[in-house]
Amino acid sequence: MTISIPSKHGTALITGASSGIGRAYAERLAKRGYDLVLVARREQVLKEIARGIEAEYPIKAKVLVADLSTSAGISAVAEHISASERLSMIVNNAGVSALTPLTDTRDEAITEMINLNITAVTVLSKAALGKFKHQGSGTIINIGSGAGFSSFPDIPLYTATKAFVYLLTRNLQGEVAGTDVRVQLVVPGAVKSEGWDRAVSAGLTSVPKEVIMSTEDCVDASLSGLDQGEMVTAPSLEDASVLQDYEAAASRLVQSMFNGMPATRYSVAKLP
Ligand SMILES: NC(=O)c1ccc[n+]([C@@H]2O[C@H](COP(=O)([O-])OP(=O)(O)OC[C@H]3O[C@@H](n4cnc5c(N)ncnc54)[C@H](OP(=O)(O)O)[C@@H]3O)[C@@H](O)[C@H]2O)c1
Prior knowledge:
It is globular, with a radius of gyration of 20 Å. The strands form two sheets. A seven-stranded parallel β-sheet has the order 3-2-1-4-5-6-9, with helices on both faces. The protein has a two-stranded parallel ribbon with strand order 7-8. It contains eight helices and nine strands. It has one domain: 3-Layer(aba) Sandwich (Rossmann fold), CATH 3.40.50. The longest helix has 29 residues. The structure holds NADP nicotinamide-adenine-dinucleotide phosphate.
């Protein structure tokens, strides 16, 4: 009889663990000694990944099949998070993109993307935050995107969902300030994954090779950022001051907007 000893690191739940960045998180977190809960829709793929990881590392990997674009799937995973006794980390990674103008995007695809990229991330963050605040520790990693920082008219919906993830995650960091609960935002650039093939028929062939990162490098840099205590980790951003300048400019912009007076360039006449 084999006795399974739970990992001292606890369990990490990873959404979208059946491919790409999520799969790389599964391997790297297993290497760090976490037990795993792997979430996605493709059960067989998840089971194969779980078997492979258990064969390589002394950890337990469970599979949780859920469609996170549906209310039922989101609720099932949120309930699992709330009920799990040893959960110490969640990685909100599952996400889809569609590189199409809004008028060329099917209504069902719009709903699916908003449910997965926004609602699931929000509801699962809420479930994990409640649990981690209660237990006094835990880590939430939300995967945003460099594409969430600016407008890209060819990818209108995806970039907007990732802008949401950016602000949500930055706001949650305020909620846990001064506690041992960690919330990290990861904003990758272009990363080689199946996601590109699903989002655009040309896949990554439409992107210059030199700007594409491997999933392993992306996750290694992100976990290094986590170890260093970073709030926002941009794996491929060489000059971190660019991000600091962006956030400082955003903060100045907001502060300058709340002053009760129409700007002089609008020449709004004053009532006598
Ligand atoms: N690749 C990039 O260049 C890049 C850049 C910046 C940010 N990101 C972000 O990184 C994250 C991972 O992307 P990736 O490139 O690694 O994509 P990927 O290879 O396509 O992986 C997406 C994962 O999400 C799962 N998923 C998709 N729809 C789902 C649903 N309805 N319910 C549950 N799981 C679902 C997929 O599994 P199933 O199909 O088995 O459900 C898969 O495991 C995404 O949030 C993406 O926006 C990617």
